[in-house]
Structures are given as structure tokens and as C-alpha cells.
Amino acid sequence: MTVTSRGSNEPSLDNFWMPFTANRQFKAAPRMLASAKGMYFEDTDGRKILDGTAGLWCVNAGHGRERIADAVHRQLSHLDFAPSFQMGHPIAFEFARRLGDIAPAGLDRVFFTSSGSESVETALKIAIAYQRAIGQGTRTRLIGRERGYHGVGFGGLSVGGILNNRRVYPLLPGADHLRHTHDLDRNAFSKGQPEHGVELADDLEGLVALHGAETIAAVIVEPVAGSTGVLVPPRGYLERLQSIARKHGILLIFDEVITGFGRLGTPFATEYFGVEPDLVSTAKGLTNGAVPMGAVFASRKIHDALMTGPDHVIELFHGYTYSGHPVACAAGLATLDIYQEEGLLRRAGHLATEWREAIHGLRDLPHVIDIRTVGLIAGIELQSRADAIGTRAYEVFVRAFDKGVLTRVTGDIIALSPPLIIETGQIDQIVSTLHDVLIEIL
Ligand SMILES: Cc1ncc(COP(=O)(O)O)c(C=O)c1O
After folding, report:
1. Listed GO molecular functions (predicted)?
2. Integer CA distances (angstroms), 285 to 317, 326, 333, in order
3. Is the CB of 226 under 6 A from ligand 1?
4. Which of 306, 314, 317, 421 keeps 20 to 30 A from 410, CA to CA?
5. CA 283 to ligand 1 centroid distance, Å
6. CA-nearest residue, atom 3 of ligand 1
């Protein structure tokens, strides 16, 4: 610890270059979390903060789960690390097998990564490699969607649709985008899937007409876009996207980094929406956020198409030092046990009506121009201040934190995604805190 003007026991804030943070603003007025248990963080002043965001959409089983801590501790003493390149260790195979049991229908081949971004890069690369393996080597183009977020690798940025993520960097040639599905004029205050917008899936037909199907490897979408403010797909949209993709030999990738592991009340969004993509990228809830890890679920068709050629040749030239990390696998196995024993992968479905009605109770408050909910997710969109986009929701975030509730903001949208263990009283606490804040602010 360095002695600082902030207090003798507090570390200097200078060295940590914080991610996705206005560093200077934060360091001038830091919000520091010191510990966490169940639904609550405790900050460095000893205040309890209700976690309205499951950390960053990842702590689905709530904080401080001893079963995960014990499993991690045991694994660290037993086998702290082992390479997965031309070597194996049983726990990685065991975790993949267990994931295979709950995998999206037909997608029981599992490639491990260390994060959501890596899962996205992996899924995109598998898609292109698969197309080549089946004799479709001209298919290298990747299609994403406006307002999509697929992490921060160059592939993910290229198919992503957030200007601030993209503007500074060179992007993959050929990437193109569907329009986003956000339509306040027609769909404001939808409960669950909005009525209007199925026709937006036809954008894929338009891109096929423009570029030629023979150039397109895959289309990637988040089933529910989270990072750009909770955009729920219109009724029929994902189904139509699937059928257009299939018709043209384009792989469909669902990026389920936030929707995976129970967020909608089903293990994966594939089941919730009744859609069968070819690849699914995940992370976050995979280990309850306790140890960084991601996983890509692939169909046997894709996997097997790449298992060709001489036996001694590496089939997919791709992988990470930490793919199948034993400690992450231990955390993941303990997480799956908790999910299964406590029924958490379905719990959001039981809470969804209560959640929806409680959050929609905020609709008549000042500045609120939309509320959207699905599963255990909510987005509350505020009217932006003239010439100061984002400041109103940011103020809500700070004031709610000061009143003991952690929310997340993007632009002028407040996003909520609490741990799946949330109880009625805690839903009420989130709603009443936001109610008070929305009345206070200008
Ligand atoms: C849909 C989606 N994909 C990818 C990512 C990137 O994950 P990570 O931050 O673990 O790299 C995120 C992160 O929020 C996400 O929401």
C-alpha cells in the first residue's frame, strides 16, 4: 500500500489503467467495492450495495459462493496449471462433458477460451475454417449488426456495431451489418419481445444480394443485445434470420455471453427463442464470474467437418494458453452444480412476470421514454439532455450507487441484470431506489 491523500491504508489509483472507464473522472471520485456476499457488495466505507447487474452480467448464482471457492482452492493445490496443447488434464474433459449435457440443442462440442471476446474471435474463426473445410473457401465475409457488442478483439469489433469501439481501429475487410432492431416509435414499453420489426431480418437477404452468398461465412447476433442497452428481438426476427442464413449456407452464430446460463429463464437463449444456431459463444456465467473463462459451443457437423486430414495434423490452428484452465474448470463445475441444485437456469422464468411488472411500474416517472424487459433483464431508456447525451443516465447510476444499488448505464439507458438468486424484497429495493432517483434528477 502507498500512503496517499485519500487515506493511509488506501492504494494509489495512479497505476491501474481502468478498462471502459473515464479514468480521470473515476479517480477524482472513486467508487470502491471491497467484498461481496449473496446479492450484495460492500464498499470500502462498509456500505451494502445491492448488485443490480450481477457484477457485469456474470455472477448469476450470487457472490461469495463457498462451493466455488472450495473447488478453486482444492484445484489450485492439486493441479494449478497444465497445458492443453498436445496434452490434456481430466477436469477439462469432465467440464466439457458436463457442459455437453446442458448445451444448446445439438451443440455439444466445446472449445474453451478465457473471455467473451476470445469466444467471439474463436466462433468467427471456426465459422471461416468450417466453410473452407467444406469447400466453400470464398466464404470469408462476416456479418454483424448495428448496436451489436461482441467484445474487443478485431473480429468482434468488426462485426460489432458500436461507433466508439470501432472508430479508432482498422477493421476486418468485408464485414457488413444488419440494421439494429431498436424502434421506439413502434415498440416503446414492450413487455417481452416487441411486436414490430420481423422484416428487419430481411436485411440478410439484402446483404446476400449485394455481396453474394458465396462470400459470406457467418452472421453473428446477440439474441438479446445487452451492452447497447437491452434490445429485445422483435417477434419472429431470430427465426427468420435463421431460415435466411440456412437457405444461403451462412452459419448463424449466437453470441450468448450475457444470455447464456439462465439469464432468460432457460439455460441458453436458443431454447427461449426456439432457434438453433450453428455456434454459440459464451463466458461470464460459465464460472459465475469467479475465474475468467469462456466457451464456444459448436455443432457436431461443424466439429466433424474439421476433423479430417492426416491424424497428426492439428485440425484447427487456434487456442489459448488458458483454454481449459484447470482452475477455471473447477470453478465452472462447481458453478454448474449450484445452477442445477438450485434450479437457477430456470429461475429467471419464474421471476420474469414479477420482475417485468415491478420495473414497468417506473414508466410514468420523469425522463423515462422506454422500458423493456425480458427474462431477468431490464432496460430503462431516458430522454437525453440536449447536447449532453449520457449524462442523465450516468447521474442516475451515481445517485443509485450512493443510495445502495448498483446499476449499469450505456448512453442514456439504465441496464439491470441482477443475480438469478434475487428475491422480491430486493426487486423492490431496486425499483424504489430508481424511483427516488428519477424523481430527484433534472
Ligand atoms: C454479447 C457479448 N459478447 C462479448 C462480450 C465480451 O466479453 P469479455 O468482456 O469477457 O471479453 C460481451 C461483454 O459484455 C458481451 O456482452
Report:
1. adenosylmethionine-8-amino-7-oxononanoate transaminase activity; pyridoxal phosphate binding
2. 27, 17, 12
3. yes
4. 421
5. 8
6. 150
Give the pLDDT score at 416.
98
Cβ atoms of 177 and 253 closer than 8 Å = no
What's the CA gap between 135 and 112, in Å, rounded? 26
115 lines ligand 1 (CB under 6 A): yes
* CA 389 – ligand 1 centroid, Å: 23
The residue type found at 189 is: F
Q: Which three cell numbers stand for residue 386?
A: 440536449
Answer yes or no: is the C-beta of 227 below 6 A from any ligand 1 atom: yes
pLDDT at 181: 97
What's residue 186's pLDDT? Answer: 98
Ligand 1 close to Cβ of residue 150 (< 6 A): yes
CA of 20 to the centre of ligand 1 (A): 12
Q: Where does 31-61+344-440 sit in CATH, by number?
A: 3.90.1150.10
Query: Which has the closest alpha carbon to 296: 272, 320, 327, 266?
Result: 320
Q: 68-341 sits in which CATH class?
A: alpha beta
CB–CB of 175/208 below 8 Å?
A: no
CA of 6 to the centre of ligand 1 (A): 33
Amino acid in the structure at residue 255: D
- What pLDDT, on the 0 to 100 scale, is given for residue 19? 97
Mutate to test the pocket of ligand 1, among 231, 284, 410 (most ligand atoms within 8 A of CB): 284
- Which residue ranges does the chain devote to CATH 3.90.1150.10? 31-61+344-440
Q: Which atom of ligand 1 is nearest to the CA of 256?
A: 1
* Cβ contact 51:36 at 8 Å: yes
Residues of the chain with CATH 3.40.640.10: 68-341
Cβ pair 50, 39 in contact under 8 A = yes
User: Given the C-alpha cell 495434423, which residue does it identify?
Assistant: 313
Residue 256 Cα to ligand 1 midpoint, Å, equals: 9
pTM exceeding the 0.85 threshold for the entire prediction: yes
Nearest ligand 1 atom, CA 259? 1
Segment-wise mean pLDDT, segments of 10 residues, the chain, 442 residues: 54 96 96 97 97 98 98 98 97 98 96 98 98 98 98 97 89 96 97 97 98 98 96 98 98 98 98 98 98 98 97 97 98 98 98 98 98 98 95 97 97 98 98 98 94
